[in-house]
Amino acid sequence: MLPALSITPALLEAARVSTAWPFEEAKKLVARLEKTPKNDPVIFETGYGPSGLPHIGTFGEVARTTMVRNAFRLLTEDKVPTRLVAFSDDLDGLRKVPDNVPNKELLTQHLGRALTAVPDPFGTHDSFGAHNNARLRGFLDQFGFDYEFVSSTAMYRSGAFDATLLTALERFDAIQAIMLPTLGEERRATYSPFLPIHPESGVVMQVPVEERNVAKGTIVWRDPASGQRYETPVTGGHAKMQWKPDWAMRWTALGVDYEMAGKDLIDSVTQSGKICRALGGTPPEGFNYELFLDENGQKISKSKGNGLTIEDWLSYASPESLSLFMYQNPKSAKRLYFDVIPRNVDDYLTFVEKYPAQDEKARLMNPAWHIHSGTPPTVEVPISFSMLMNLVSVSNAPEKGVLWGFIRRYAPDASPERNPKLDELAGYAVSYFHAFVKPTKVYKAADDVEREALEALSAAIMALPKDASAEDVQGAVYDVGRAIPRYQDLKAKGATPEKPGVSAEWFSAIYKVLLGQEKGPRFGSFAVLYGLDETRALIRKALAGEFVKG
């Protein structure tokens, strides 16, 4: 169920001038309705090809479309009914066996058949298509999306598409006139917008149509293997349409008003739009988003199973951080791998923290409004995710309970019960550190200058009062670095020969020697959280070479 939107005159006015991308997209829909009013609900659609397991890109399309839907609701004062349809192309034929599934031999035996007619290699559902559809619905439900799942198989077989399919048969030549110029010579010779489903084998046939009978609503085709001719109705699930005509047919039959698509489908959107018009429909509004790339810069593919899975991200970070990743810069290609997780977690917390103090215009530019459908939660997290991971690093905490001993020292009033989000982050930090950070740590043995500097830092920390603040410790770090020629920066803003600035090399040395990593937290905050005595002990162990040895 859609959450209620809190709409005020000031928020509505801010929405009308907002340049946040969901509002820019929603304004297209508002203009569409002003030009061509409709009495039925405005239809937002997302598509899913269940030939492989759902991946994060699948989720991203639903999340982004939901953001546009909410922006549209605000712009129209939530007076225009909307529906979000998650459409599964599960009547498509299985063209190849995915790399990331069991029982590949079983699937190999059913290549070419509709996904909902292919046995489930996992053994949990009636078909491979049903299994993947269930995985998609389960994940979307977990995130609380308001959507209606629609199966291509069900729509074809129920007759819901019959009227539009008959129109397509009647306008067969018009569709061919659009499609054939886009095809190579060999494909052009055999192309048909209709794919009959073999009445005996169940294979979705890629064959030319020899005859059309518009009055009977049938096509005649020949089995290339046996030479036998068949006459097949285009209705009732006995045939389906090729990809681009199918997309256009669906837009027309369902009255889709908005659908976004990946950059790799720009030509498909163009040709499907032309076919939609030929069928008497109006192509939906939308835009082409950039693709997600894996750690090697390759496009993420559900059949290859490269990149992050939905379950991967949620093992190490919150759902909201994933939604933020989807919100940011949808028209820019983004690397989607484990190392993007920590920043998205902390950035999400920053956006939520800023939200209450912002005016209406700033709130609508804040991703938190879009992630939480206009009502971001109040979250109290006194410690960042990156800081928690560094705390795990030095404490080698095996589980989050160990971290709470340090957290309470830094924030005495905090507790798992009072700060459930912080408790959740502590668990994620432990999991993420042990999976990805610990295996890559490389500690640096301190050289003579670094040893002298770290010994001076230890002495400076010892001289501080036990209740020293993070700012006090940070000041000591700067004072130590400023006194050592290697770390002096005379080009820093406000630097003088008497009080030079401090170069990043000093902080890099701290991180490499003490934490075994290139970058780290604001050291003053870290030391107060970890404990001043514990920080001095950490320095002592590092200088003794214990980390390099271990």
Structural write-up:
- With 550 residues, the protein is α/β, with parallel strands linked by helices.
- It is 48% helix and 10% strand.
- It has 25 helices and 15 strands.
- The strands form six sheets. Strands 3-2-1-9 form a four-stranded parallel beta sheet.
- Helix 17 crosses helix 19 (420-437), helix 20 (448-463) packs antiparallel against helix 21 and helix 21 packs across helix 23 (523-530).
- The chain is elongated, with a radius of gyration of 29 Å.
β-strand percent reads: 5-15%
How many separate domains?
3
Q: List the total number of helices.
A: 25
Radius of gyration: 29 Å
Give average pLDDT, whole number. 93
Major sheet: size, sense and barrel closure? 4 strands, parallel
The gross shape turns out to be: elongated
Uncertain stretches: none
- Determine the structural class based on helices, strands and strand pairing: alpha/beta
Spatial separation of the terminal alpha carbons: 54 Å
CATH topology of the largest domain: Rossmann fold
* Corresponding CATH architecture of the largest domain: 3-Layer(aba) Sandwich
The quaternary organization reads as single chain
Adjacency order of strands in the biggest sheet: 3-2-1-9
Overall CATH class of the largest domain: Alpha Beta
How are the secondary structure elements laid out?
Blueprint: H1 9-17, H2 21-35, E1 42-48, H3 56-75, E2 82-88, H4 104-108, H5 128-142, E3 148-151, H6 152-158, H7 162-170, H8 172-179, H9 185-190, E4 194-196, E5 209-213, E6 218-222, E7 229-233, E8 239-241, H10 243-254, E9 256-258, E10 261-262, H11 266-278, E11 288-289, E12 292-293, H12 310-316, H13 319-327, E13 334-335, H14 341-354, H15 360-365, H16 367-371, H17 385-395, H18 400-410, H19 420-437, H20 448-463, H21 470-482, E14 488-489, E15 501-502, H22 504-515, H23 523-530, H24 532-543, H25 546-549
Parallel strand pairs: 1-2, 1-9, 2-3, 10-11, 12-13
Antiparallel strand pairs: 4-8, 5-6, 6-7, 14-15
